[in-house]
Fold this sequence. Notes:
Layout: E1 2-3, H1 5-16, H2 22-33, H3 39-52, E2 67-75, H4 83-92, E3 96-101, E4 108-114, H5 117-131, E5 135-143, E6 163-164
Antiparallel strand pairs: 1-6, 2-4, 2-5, 3-4
Amino acid sequence: MKLDKVKTIIIKEKVKNPNVTVKELREILLKEYGIQISLTRVARILQELKKSGAIREVIIPNENNLIFAFIEMSFNNHHFKKWKKAYEYLIGSAHVVMFAVTGGVRRWKVLAAFRSFKEVTMWIHEFLDRHGEFVDELNLMFVYDIYKFRFSPEIFESSPPEFLIS
Length: 166
């Protein structure tokens, strides 16, 4: 999907206020950007953005009520064929909030949320019990304070007005 000026503005405004209504978006487009479009068109653009994966609507619980664990993993190359089962386990885990791949020694990064330290211990134990052959090293760090847990709408001001979402 190509993100034109209007779509980029709508994303920016949804980041600024996730609860903004279609009517309010239409008013913002007119008053702040001089763009006049119908309520129906704004609603359709939102549907297109969601359907294409350009935006996601998620509920994020208050981080003060959870324990966050940041986990880094490196792999045992002798058992690399077992990567897919470990990958699927992480993707399917209710505790995993973010799962990313990076370069370097510890290539998988996982941000997971738990309700207790006991849950963390049990989850790590179960993961290593199932996929320990594949994991060469696991580094577990607890996140004690979260100072920012959101996107800033300004990110869309510094981006080119048009870019592609695949």
